[in-house]
Q: What sequence folds into this?
């Protein structure tokens, strides 16, 4: 199948179907050791400063104002 011949909408539907097939199998995606370390680093940083960030509406407005 030539994926590039599909419309954007069709490719999105295909991507969703692929993702759903992975989830349906109950497969767990294995994290690399580097990914695990990065997640731990980010969690520790959050626990230290408790900065929850900004609401999506604020972030979106800030991006769109540029």
A:
């Amino acid at each position: 199948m030539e994926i590039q011949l599909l419309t954007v909408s069709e490719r999105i539907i295909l991507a969703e179907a692929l993702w759903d097939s992975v989830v349906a199998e109950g497969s767990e995606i294995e994290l690399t050791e580097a990914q695990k370390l990065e997640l731990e680093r980010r969690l520790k940083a959050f626990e230290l400063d408790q900065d929850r960030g900004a609401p999506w509406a604020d972030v979106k407005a800030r991006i769109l104002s540029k």
In short: Residues 8 and 28 are 28 Å apart (CA to CA). Helices lie at 8-24, 33-49, 56-64. The mean pLDDT is 91. The two ends are 40 Å apart (CA to CA).
